[in-house]
Amino acid sequence: MTKKRVALIFGGNSSEHDVSKRSAQNFYNAIEATDKYEIIVFAIAQNGFFLDTESSKKILALEDEQPIVDAFMKTVDTSDPLARIHALKSAGDFDIFFPVVHGNLGEDGTLQGLFKLLDKPYVGAPLRGHAVSFDKALTKELLTVNGIRNTKYIVVDPESANNWSWDKIVAELGNIVFVKAANQGSSVGISRVTNAEEYTEALSDSFQYDYKVLIEEAVNGARELEVGVIGNDQPLVSEIGAHTVPNQGSGDGWYDYNNKFVDNSAVHFEIPAQLSPEVTKEVKQMALDAYKVLNLRGEARMDFLLDENNVPYLGEPNTLPGFTNMSLFKRLWDYSDINNAKLVDMLIDYGFEDFAQNKKLSYSFVSLGEEKIGKFN
Predict the structure, then answer these.
(1) Do 46 and 113 sit in the same domain of this protein?
(2) Is 172 annotated as a binding residue?
(3) Which pairs of positions does the record mark as disulfide bonds?
(4) By the 8 A CB rule, do 97 and 122 touch?
(5) b/e burial code for range 259-269 (CB count within 10 A of at least 16 → b)
(6) Which backbone phi and psi does 49 adopt, to 5 degrees?
(7) Does residue 260 surpass a pLDDT of 60?
(8) What global pTM score does this model have?
(9) Residue 3 labelled as part of a binding site
(10) 362 appears as a binding residue in the annotation
(11) 84, 102, 122: which is the final residue of a domain?
(12) 79 burial class (0-12, 13-18, 19+ CB within 10 angstroms)?
């Protein structure tokens, strides 16, 4: 039987570029372990250009990236308006895209728009699901309207931020808040704030990454929970995982970029999370409800905060969850008796299924014919 050809795309121009490479390595190994697919790899360099497959293989193997990119760019006609994606032609045709591009391009809907334009199946959520979920403010608005509990928040832009002094923030949200760039991932552009000076610095930092910033109340005594969700119309939910960092209970520590991707030796993981049956049921149901409300397909990770009274708050979705050796999403499915090879096989099947389902939708139109314009007085 002819193997389906899977185009694994990784890298990108976000701060999570290197994280994407590590995730892609694990996904590559998992796809290979199924013995069902031929894998073609495409790296997206930090300058936004797709690289040819041979160059991409070297980068996936963690060879020094910059000389590889420099050599490739010498072969590119940058005057070609399609130069950034021209390398996609280098491997012939393929059957499905498997994006592993965290942050910009991969999780904001950009790549999914390209896949749709090329009329190809792909793994994961559609453009609108990614775009809405990547915007923390839009996500919270949808969650709130649909009755899915999340933390209290304020949204500001560079102009309206002047109306929100630290004293006003404290009165509205409390004396510990998190300031977040609305469209960023993996704790980039996020600050924990406890005073006016930190507040000013945090706004300045977040506005480097987006012109829309979320100011969010802190949860007292928070435990952080993660839940994996996979599937389309009838999604599956994983066991719940929990993680804590030193001083998190007092509010001084939190699960930041360093803890996620650089050094999590001080992080305590718990799978399954030790929760009451009632809280476990509520968290899983909230995850499923949010998955559907946000129009997600294929895969996602839902992050929660559990307060000192064991009340869960949905933090945010991650539409292309990390799959590094440090990623809890990967471990959650292992514990849920779905190993890596089975997981990627299911994700690829979901991609084909969603593509076939969308093909049934009608995009027919009625021809306008000859224009007959009314009279103007």
Answers:
(1) yes
(2) yes
(3) none
(4) yes
(5) bbbeebeebee
(6) -90, 135
(7) no
(8) 0.91
(9) no
(10) no
(11) 122
(12) exposed
Residue 238, in any domain of the structure: yes
Is 40 found in the same domain as 163? no
Distance of alpha carbon 342 from alpha carbon 330, whole angstroms: 12
Q: Residue 323 forms beta bridges with which residues?
A: none
209, two tokens:
């990454």
Convert the pLDDT of each residue in 243-254 to its tens digit: 887 655 555 555
pLDDT digits (tens, 9 = 90+) for 212-232: 999 999 998 889 999 999 999
182 is in an annotated binding site: yes
221: left (phi over 0), alpha (psi -120 to 50) or beta: left
19 is in an annotated binding site: no
Q: Indicate the SS3 state at residue 36.
A: coil
Q: Per the annotation, does 90 bind a ligand?
A: no
Q: Residue 207's CB: how many other CB atoms inside 10 A?
A: 18
Structural domain span for residue 57: 4-122
Structure confidence by residue, pLDDT tens digits, 102-119: 998 999 999 999 999 999
Provide the pairing of β-strand 298-306 with 312-318.
antiparallel
How would you class 176 by CB atoms within 10 Å of its CB: exposed for 0-12, middle for 13-18, buried for 19 or more?
A: middle
148 is in an annotated binding site: no
Check whether 25 is labelled as a binding-site residue.
Answer: no
- In one-letter notation, the amino acid at residue 191 is S
Q: Is 196 annotated as a binding residue?
A: yes
| CA dist., res. 82 & res. 73, Å (int) | 14
DSSP code of residue 374: P
Q: Report the domain count for the chain.
A: 3
Q: How far apart are CA 171 and CA 164, in angstroms?
A: 11
Q: Output the average pLDDT for the chain.
A: 92
Does the annotation list 201 as a binding residue?
yes
186 is in an annotated binding site: yes
Write down the number of H helices and E strands in the chain.
Answer: 12, 12
Asked if 71 and 51 count as a contact pair (C-beta separation under 8 A), the reply is no
44 alpha carbon, distance to own chain's centre: 17
Measure the CA–CA gap between 251 and 257, rounded to whole angstroms: 17
Instruction: Check whether 184 is labelled as a binding-site residue.
Output: yes
Q: Is 212 among the domain residues? A: yes
Residue 359 CA to residue 147 CA, distance in Å, equals: 32
**Are 202 and 236 in a shared domain?**
no
Q: Is 316 annotated as a binding residue?
A: yes
